[in-house]
Write a structure and sequence with these properties.
Length: 91
Amino acid sequence: MKKGNNISSMQDQNQLAQAQQSILHLQHAIHQAQSHPNEEIMQQIKHSLERAKKSLAQAESVTDDDNALDLVRRELAQQEETYQEISDRGI
């Protein structure tokens, strides 16, 4: 579905919700890594990060709500930054 399709409003919100849910999973994995970093958790973060990026891309393709998209983008960027800090410290 493409942006601007009024029929897709419910799906737009669903895509945003899926992106937000993906970021919540990412946050959870990052919190685990902050307290108990290990290779398994770092792999889980990488997987969660990729899923969150894909979910955001899908939401961007169908959603006109720039404010909501910006919020999700900022949250993802913040989680990516935290992941990078953990990664730089090593396991």
